Amino acid sequence: MGTEHTETLIIGGGQAGLVTAYELDRRGREYLVVEALDRIGDNWRRHYDSLVLFSPRKLDSLPGLDFPGPAMGLPTKDEVGDYLEAYAAHHDIDVRTGVKVTRLGRTGDGFEATTSSGVIKSDNVVVATGKVDDPYIPDFAGQLDDRIVQLHSCQYKRPDQLAPGPVLVVGAAHSGADIAIEAAATHRTILSGRRTGTLPFRLTGPATRFAAPVMKFVMRKVISVKTPLGRKVGPKFRAGGGPLIDPRMEDIENAGVEWTEERTVGAQDAKPLLADGRTLDVANVVWCTGFHHDYSWLDLDLADENGYPAEEFRGVVESVPGLYFMGLTFQSSFSSMLFIGVGRDARHVVRHLTARADTRPSVPA
Question: What is the per-residue pLDDT for 156?
Answer without folding.
Answer: 97
